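Re-running the complex after MR caught last week's input typo. The corrected sequence lines follow. Everything else is unchanged.
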Amino acid sequence: MNSPTNQVYPVIWHNESVSLIDQTRLPREYGFVEIHRCEDMARAIKTMIVRGAPAIGVAAAYGMYLGAREIETNNRDEFLNHLEKVAQLLRSTRPTAVNLFWAISRMLKIAYESLGTVEEIKQNLLNTAQTINAEDLQTCYAIGDYGLAALPKTPEKLTILTHCNAGALATAGYGTALGVVRSAFREGRLERVFADETRPRLQGAKLTTWECVQEGIPVTLITDSMAAHCMKQGLIDVVVVGADRIAANGDTANKIGTYSLAIIAKAHNIPFYVAAPLSTVDFSLHDGRKIPIEERTPEEIYKVGSTILTPNGVEFYNPAFDVTPAELIAAIITENGVFAPGELANSQVKQVA
Ligand code: MRU
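Corrected-run output:
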């Protein structure tokens, strides 16, 4: 598959540091934050300068290297001891996206398995972070291709509804759900994308629309509460969303509002797909009940910009993710093929396209 010319890469390794697209400033400003230290990477993940499950995984992998680089000892055991603390700091940033924990575990494993000097272990860690980055990009291309093949055959040009941002910004590049959209666009199978604004952080309004506009992909923004009405009017052919953590039975945690979208898609007989890399599947969880759901600051819901919306005396609840039960999901699109939620166990073996 060929990559688009004006592709967005949210996490870029330079010789000494990591450049992150500052996603908190888009679409007003397109700029980068330079990250030299692990502590700054942890803060960038927490404050959502970098966000989206796969991108968080890539950022955390580089964070592990940056943390390793700061450890001043030649003693292997002492080094590994300190590296565990670096891992702990990065793990404490956001609880739901399993890619974070997956990437940190992979980096730790490399460190423990590396024989040789501390300097050599550090070099292996950098190589592994770069590999995780490169692999995720290839994974997104494969998801785009498999997703394109799995889309309904009629109508010829599809209108795809997506939620939040599961695009290039949320991955190493290209995207998962938006990767499927990109592939459909490239092959002339896309009529347009409907982007849910995605309250309260507005990733749909700010990031998904921005990505589409960069590439001339026709996009229509709606507020989250308009999705059912649009479906009833026959404006939506298929829903494709990303994921932050998928349990072994296919229950899927994704941005808050995904669950209600799946319910209304079912009510209107519209296929609902999840597009995600296998690094998002948490096989240690049988189902979605134990997926940790991040709760964020109430400020995100009682304020719009600098305006406070509510009177004093109101209580708030701001879960950032919800879990869509497997039975509402038509299929899960991965880099190894497209699987019914109940068949995820087979996903370790690559399907023939
Ligand atoms: O809180 P965010 O912006 O990190 O949440 C992002 C999402 O929920 C995405 O849909 C998910 O991480 C998949 S990104 C390919």
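None of the earlier attempt is carried over here. The two ends are 13 Å apart (CA to CA). The chain has ten helices and 16 strands.
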